[in-house]
From TrEMBL:
It holds the Pfam family TsaE. Gene3D superfamilies: P-loop containing nucleotide triphosphate hydrolases. Keywords: ATP-binding, Cytoplasm, Magnesium, Metal-binding, Nucleotide-binding, tRNA processing. This is tRNA threonylcarbamoyladenosine biosynthesis protein TsaE.
């Protein structure tokens, strides 16, 4: 496992980081987003979607759990915060190992359902617009993504 910490000074910088990540992901990649309310998870996902070429407006799927968007590869945006029961079967594996990339907000709500190899991103408030972003790897594919993200 490897970890990278960085600071962004604006929502636009956070979105640019996500846009860069979107340029290197492949089908089957899983990105998790954890952080305080208002820390930038949805801004990150908007930048990520832009990097995939998604044309639709992206917002948090708070009441639908999963929203799908078409881009260079499909984007499966999940917000599992409201899941009542972690063992509820939503067929998430079909998304995780499907044709697109999954971005999951609040992954701590479904730890046993997450794939072993994923890029885990945490966002923390530092100030009004500045954020600390911690990126952690959990396997070989996520490590490859982190290396490409850092050095591209």
């Amino acid at each position: 496992m490897e970890e990278w910490n960085l600071i962004t000074e604006s929502p636009e910088e956070t979105m640019q980081l996500a846009e860069k990540l979107a340029g290197i992901v492949q089908p089957g990649d899983v990105i998790t987003l954890e952080g305080d309310l208002g820390a930038g998870k949805t801004s990150f996902t908007k930048g990520f979607a832009k990097g995939l070429g998604v044309k639709r407006v992206v917002n948090s799927p708070t009441f639908t759990i999963i929203k799908e968007y078409n881009g260079r590869i499909p984007l499966y945006h999940m917000d599992v915060y409201r899941m009542e029961d972690e063992m509820e079967d939503l067929g998430l594996e079909e998304y995780f190992y499907g044709e697109g990339v999954s971005v999951i907000e609040w992954p701590s709500m479904i730890p046993s359902q997450l794939p072993e190899d994923r890029l885990s991103i945490s966002l923390f408030h530092l100030g009004e617009t500045s954020r600390k972003i911690t990126v952690q790897t959990t396997g070989s594919r996520s490590l490859q993504l982190l290396k490409e993200l850092r050095y591209e």
